[in-house]
Design a protein that fits this description.
The structure holds 2 protein chains of 2 kinds. By secondary structure, chain A is of the alpha+beta class. Chain A contains 8 helices and 22 strands. By secondary structure, chain B is mainly alpha-helical. Chain B has 25 helices and no strands. In chain B, helix 2 packs across helix 13, helix 17 packs antiparallel against helix 18 and helix 18 packs across helix 20. Classes of the chains: A alpha+beta, B mainly alpha.
Chain lengths: 365, 589
């Protein structure tokens, strides 16, 4: 549905290049909920804005369905109003001088298709019902709460029945509880109307919980494209692993001498799982999420167990955060809050093989 | 690959489309070239030649500069300008700081009345203010002098004339000082209000008394803002024209602005080349000061003490000084409004000016008002004044909007140049603008526009002068409109022009109206530009007032002055109604 090929865009400010995109290609299938995930400055918003027509790429091609909306080779660059997309902005961009109704009616008044007054009324009311704002139509847009403004922006984006919906970090301005509710609501709405959606976020929880497909970006390049579970369980490279929350990264080498993959590190050898791109003999990082690290008071028979000393414990309600010194490394763990460990205590640290992932070493991560 | 893409036009596909960005950029560039660059370049060229302005020709020569810099008039005018501006601006600054502090940071009573006393002087046109003080402080017939002489005679001291003479450098300083206060007060009062009181509370908790906190914390923190206001006031006074003209012309005391006018229009024969040389020098000095001012504002902004959160600042207890403090505002009100207005009102009721007495009151009538209002020249000049004010207001704001749009919303490299030129143009003195326009519209190619001698040349001059302020207003307005509001409209299917009309324009209306009223109000009482550019048909009311007074019709001119003051006051009140809570920040005055 959305086809982006070899898209490049650089920004030159006075001192540096920011938000650049380097020859990025990806496809979004019809009806998919596709997420561009990455830290700030990785270029995800730039890609979205290029698709919307709000930025002009330096090179590449963008197609929406069969329509080429941008092509540097064919010298095509459709202005945003000709692309037939819906978009929700990070700031919502609700027009403060219009009522709720007028905000939603705007795309119908300005679009290429002409509608009669009563048609506009019907469609606006239907869009407002979809987001449960039908009782607010007469209000000033500025009187709405943050969550309501967000829904209004969604109604406005959907009212003209676009083929593609672009969402630019729409939940980042909401408080934590509302964000959780809106995640589910947004995903359900997308399932219901089956609109092809491109979602931009820096929050891996949003990406994992909502998407059908995730593209992880770093510094203008795509590191991995995969469904959420795969990105989480089998991250490609140390950057994705780290971004997905596997903050324990131990340097080592993938051994060639075993039937199962084993990483040899200076604190011991660990069985692990690995992706196809990692080969025996490679320098790798052993990645494991803090929640998957198991602590034992006594030496148990389990494999992948090493001895360490508790350096620090922080009780934070849901978890007991511990830092454990093992040789020259510090491992971070999240334990159940009832676990009894204290500072200075010697413990045995088990890194269960199913959660240990050997990943290639990315530079600077 | 990249190099091909760079040449790609901004909007292609579906045929070439008319791009709003390119159009606005081109229009803004043309306007700035026309309003700022061309006048300044022609001024410079004409300062390098001799002969009347209407015949372009002759060789380039440095004669004007040589004459200028060896002329005794020039050095005395330069000295007068510096002394006048330094003394008057320091006086205004100290007074304004005191007033702003009293209003915002002390428990002085009747703060609203104090505010009125500070705002009302803005409605008094400068030329009228100076003329009214002539009636109060001329050595022979000045009312104040008469009272002083009478008072002295009670003690057996007899004085023939004086003792005070407004037609002197001291007189100019006195009026410059009085007139400067309101503007600086408005610039500083917000800073005093918004200052984070916790900074002062921290001083108190460290063991300092309120008085020590004022000296060690409050004033130093406000230092950069105060300095910026001081420079602003200094630049304003350098630029001032009405007071020095009214008070200095007869006595032969010149400052740079009046010297330029005198050399071009009074001197016989008029020497436009010499005048242009003075003007170029004047402008260079002002430009340096303007750049200094910009750097000052930046520093003031770096001092992040002004937070804008709404808290109640610490109030300094005045104790038994509460009423004397209010008395200061009373004095200011008497000096700037009550005394000048009363003496003009008195003069306007008499057939010939006389000192107030019971006999004179017998002759009082409204005849002068009838004379003025029934004079066809009044209707003619009133229409001109209205056209000038509305024309300058509307056109200035349109150009300002285009410049702001380019500066804030586009990525043209030249946008910094456009915005910078506009800002620096604030420093061009009114007299210099007017003189430059004489050259522009008397010489090819612009003489073929035929606007010399019409009201439109005055409109052009006022546009140049007020563009900087108007652009700051629209810049601020546009910066407050989140870019995504416009982008959302584009995504929703509206083109560039429709977006500008339905979103940008509508959201900017508040700032637009505020700037418009400001320019209209200032154009109504503008004097230097209409005077220098005055011809047969384009006279405005303030110029007639001055000419009429010069011709000896003091009483009729006073009646006209009273009418003008009431008009500007009414418009000012209407404007405040319209703008209620909106603050026009930046360059007030």
């Amino acid at each position: 549905m959305i086809t982006v090929s070899k898209l490049s865009k650089t920004f030159h400010t006075e001192h540096e290049t920011v938000g650049a995109v380097r020859e990025v290609s990806f496809d979004v299938a019809e009806g998919a909920f596709y997420t561009l995930l990455g830290p700030s400055g990785c270029g995800k918003t730039t890609i979205l804005r290029c698709i919307a027509g709000l930025e002009q790429p330096d090179a590449g091609e963008i197609r929406l369905g069969e329509t080429v909306v941008f092509s540097s080779e064919q010298q095509i660059n459709l202005p945003p109003e000709k692309r037939g997309i819906g978009m929700v902005f990070q700031s919502y961009a609700i027009w403060p001088h219009m009522s709720v109704f007028e905000n939603v009616a705007f795309p119908l008044q300005e679009g290429s298709q002409r509608f009669s007054r009563s048609e506009i009324r019907d469609r606006v009311m239907k869009a407002l019902e979809t987001v449960q704002l039908e009782t607010m139509e007469r209000r000033d847009a500025t009187q709405l709460s943050g969550g309501q403004q967000q829904r209004l922006a969604l109604a406005r984006a959907l009212v003209a029945e676009p083929t593609v919906l672009l969402l630019d970090e729409p939940l980042s301005n909401l408080d934590a509880q509302l964000r959780g509710e809106m995640r589910i609501e947004l995903r359900e709405l997308q399932r219901r109307i089956r609109i092809t959606t491109l979602y931009v976020t820096h929050d891996q929880i949003e990406a994992l919980s909502m998407s059908s497909q995730i593209a992880v970006l770093r510094a203008g390049n795509i590191c991995q494209i995969a469904p959420p579970k795969e990105v989480y369980l089998n991250p490609k490279g140390s950057f994705v692993a780290n971004f997905m929350g596997a903050t324990n990264l131990i340097e080592g080498r993938l051994s060639a001498n075993h039937d199962v993959p084993v990483v040899e590190t200076d604190i011991g050898n660990f069985q692990c799982i690995k992706g196809d791109e990692v080969r025996a003999g490679d320098s790798v990082l052993l990645a494991i999420q803090p929640v998957n690290v198991v602590l034992h008071q006594n030496q148990s028979a389990g494999a992948n167990t090493v001895k360490g000393k508790v350096e620090l414990t922080v009780f934070s309600g849901d978890y007991l955060d511990c830092q454990i010194r093992v040789g020259s490394h510090t491992l971070y763990t999240k334990q159940h809050p009832t676990v009894e460990v204290s500072r200075g205590q010697e413990v045995y640290v088990e890194l269960p093989p199913a959660h240990c992932i050997a990943v290639t070493m990315d530079s600077d991560s | 690959m990249l190099s091909i893409a760079k040449r790609l036009p901004a909007v292609l596909g579906g045929g070439m489309r008319f791009n709003a960005g390119t159009f606005v950029f081109a229009a803004a560039t043309i306007c700035i070239a026309w309003l700022i660059v061309v006048p300044m370049v022609l001024l410079l060229l004409n300062s390098l030649r001799v002969g009347p302005p209407s015949f372009w020709g002759g060789e380039f020569t440095l004669r004007n500069y040589i004459v200028a810099f060896t002329h005794e008039h020039f050095f005395s005018a330069l000295g007068n300008t510096v002394v006048f501006s330094v003394v008057a601006s320091l006086g205004s600054l100290v007074t304004a700081i005191t007033f702003a502090w009293l209003v915002e940071r002390t428990d002085m009573p009747y703060r609203n009345a104090a505010w009125v006393a500070m705002l009302l002087p803005l409605a008094m046109p400068g030329v009228i203010f100076a003329l009214s003080w002539m009636l109060l402080l001329l050595p022979e017939i000045g009312l104040v002098n008469v009272v002083i002489r009478w008072f002295c005679s009670l003690f057996g001291i007899s004085i023939e004339t004086g003792p005070l003479d407004i037609q002197s450098l001291e007189g100019m300083m006195f009026l410059g000082w009085l007139r400067g206060v309101s503007t600086i007060f408005l610039m500083l009062v917000g800073v005093f209000r918004m200052m984070d009181p916790r900074l002062e509370e921290a001083g108190r908790l460290s063991g300092a008394s309120p008085r020590r906190v004022l000296w060690r914390v409050t004033l130093p923190l406000l230092g950069p803002a105060i300095l910026a206001a001081g420079i602003y006031s200094f630049v304003n006074l350098l630029d001032s024209f009405e007071g020095p003209l009214v008070l200095g012309l007869a006595a032969g005391i010149f400052v740079l602005s009046t010297l330029i006018y005198f050399t071009a229009r009074y001197h016989s024969p008029p020497d436009y080349g010499l005048s242009a040389a003075y003007a170029v020098f004047f402008m260079a000095v002002m430009a340096i000061l303007a750049i200094f001012y910009i750097r000052m504002i930046r520093r003031a902004e770096r001092f992040a003490v002004v937070t804008g959160k709404g808290f109640r600042p610490m109030k300094y207890p005045l104790g038994r000084w509460r009423l004397p403090a209010l008395g200061l505002f009373g004095c200011y009100f008497v000096f700037t409004i009550l005394a000048p207005f009363t003496v003009l009102l008195w003069a306007s009721l008499l057939p010939f000016y006389e000192l107030p007495s019971w006999e004179a009151l017998q002759y009082a009538s409204f005849d002068n008002y009838v004379e003025i209002l029934s004079n066809p020249r009044f209707t003619h000049d009133l229409i001109n004044t209205v056209i000038v004010a509305l024309g300058a207001g509307t056109l200035t704001l349109l150009v300002a909007f285009m410049i702001s749009w380019v500066a804030v919303r586009t990525k043209y490299k030249a946008r910094f140049l456009l915005d910078g030129l506009t800002f620096v143009s604030y420093a061009i003195p009114g007299v210099v603008v007017a003189l430059a326009l004489v050259f522009v519209y008397l010489q090819p190619p612009f003489k073929y526009l035929g606007i010399y001698g019409t009201v439109w040349i005055i409109v052009a001059g006022l546009m140049t002068q007020y563009l900087a302020f108007a652009t700051r207003t629209t810049n601020a307005g546009l910066l407050q409109i989140h870019k995504e509001l416009e982008e959302a409209a584009r995504i929703c299917g509206a083109g560039q022009w429709r977006t500008m009309w339905r979103i940008t324009g509508r959201l900017l209306m508040g700032a637009f109206v505020a700037g418009w009223i400001w320019v209209v109000a200032h154009s109504l009482r503008s004097f230097a530009i209409p005077l220098v550019l005055a011809g047969q048909d384009n006279e405005v009311l303030s110029v007639w007032l001055w000419v009429h007074w010069q011709d000896g019709w003091v009483s009729q001119a006073s009646a006209l002055a009273v009418i003008l003051i009431l008009l500007t006051a009414i418009i000012g009140l209407l404007a405040r109604r319209l703008l209620t809570s909106r603050q026009v920040g930046g360059l007030q005055g």
